[in-house]
Structure prediction request, 502 residues.
Amino acid sequence: MARRKKATKKVANKRKVRKKITRKKIAKKKATKKKITNKITRKTIKDISNNIEKSIKLVKSSNNDSDLANGQIALQTVRGMRDILPGDQAYWQQIRKIFEKRSVEYGFSRVDTPVVELESLFTKAIGKNTDIINSELYAFNAKSGDRVALRPELTASVVRAYIQHGMTILPKPIKLFSMGSVYRYDKPGEGRYREFHQAEFNIFGEDDAILDAQVMQIAHRVLKSLGIKNIQFRVNSIGTEESRSEYLKLLTAYFQSKKSKLPLKYRDIIKTNPMRIFDAKDDKCMQVCAGAPQAIDHLDKESREHFKNLLEYLDELDLAYIIDSHLVRGLDYYTRTVFEMSVVDERGLRHSLGGGGRFDGLVELFGGEPTPAIGFAFGIDRLVIEMKRVKAKKYQASQPRVFLAQLGDLAKKKSLQIFADIEQSGILVAESFGRGALKAQLRYASKLGVDLTLIIGQQEALDDTVIVKNMVTGTQETITRDKTVAFVKKGLKEISKLVKRK
Ligand code: HAM
Prediction:
């Protein structure tokens, strides 16, 4: 009995020792693994920073004058212009999608115009004494000798296209939507670029204020669908060109009396274009402008009635607005209604996201029939900035639900046809033909979060079969190649039900 007890104790001790050794071994293994991981992480970080340093050196060296003289290229964008990188594309995609959707909903047809136009088109429409024409226009002589310019906005081009292609005879109102890059030699800064992007909505042929209210409602809906909140609408009326002459006389006299208080740059335009002084962001100008006569107090009877109707429609639509009597907008073609959409950030700074107004005289100015018109443009770059600032939800591109992995040359060849079959059946499928090791491909598949992974190894390629791995349940099955599409469809359906039930 005593001997048996002793033997049991011995066995228990042995077990204890073995357990201890195993624990020690595991701990040692874990420590070594950690060391290796740390080493790898350190190495990866070092590699990444080395690569970044190399790229910076490359950019610096290639931007060096002597290298440039040797025919090297400068690896940087032109000042005020930038690349839109993959990380930001989701925002751009969402914005474009919303614009396209809303434009169709409201009955707009799309027009795309060239980036380069005759310079005179913009000078005539926007006005010679504006910042856009005076200092911001990218104008140059074309080889033909024509004086051309990169478009600083879209409206002048849309109006040109409207007349040039005889759209004037179409039943009114005519609604045109346009989107593209525009160029202004502006002082680059936050949300201020030399190449930026606009999307604009214009309606031709109606002067009823209800359309002014409708375009503002479209702008509001677009901003709301992008998740942009606390939008401020500022509105004003600057009357018709004819009725403005009396007001301009008063304004000129006022600025003349305050000339010494205005910065030099603005003294020159007192006589030629006094309303542009309201656009200035300069403190001194703003102080002088605070006491200036306001267009809204000098409107002709019809413009006053028009503005009153607009405000009533806006109230009806429950669209909040602020009447800003200093809002004149920096383009000369506006008549009556002008408006701007902006947001105020946490520092109290206002950012204009878009703006517009009536341009009842522009079609006629370009030689067309007198045609009232109203429209607005959004600055897309600024919408992206604002979406990021308010952490608006990003657009999610459709995710592939199937991944196709293959190993070996024959399998790769066979995969191409299977890939095409699945895609043609309308199922979004991802692959990684360039990635060699099966392990790396499977890692990529789980990173994508697909529901099914199809594997074609060397054996499957020879047998004309496919392994289908259900990534949700973890089960897998081998099927014949010709049944792949039907099997995938059935599998995805089942997974959808399963996931929904969960
Ligand atoms: P705009 O106010 O000159 O109007 O420009 C519209 C929007 O473009 C601005 O509200 C702003 O969001 C954006 N924007 C302007 N300059 C820059 C810049 N340097 N960098 C980034 N974004 C900028 C027009 O262009 C008129 N054509 C709008 C219109 C259409 N009126 C009637 N129909």
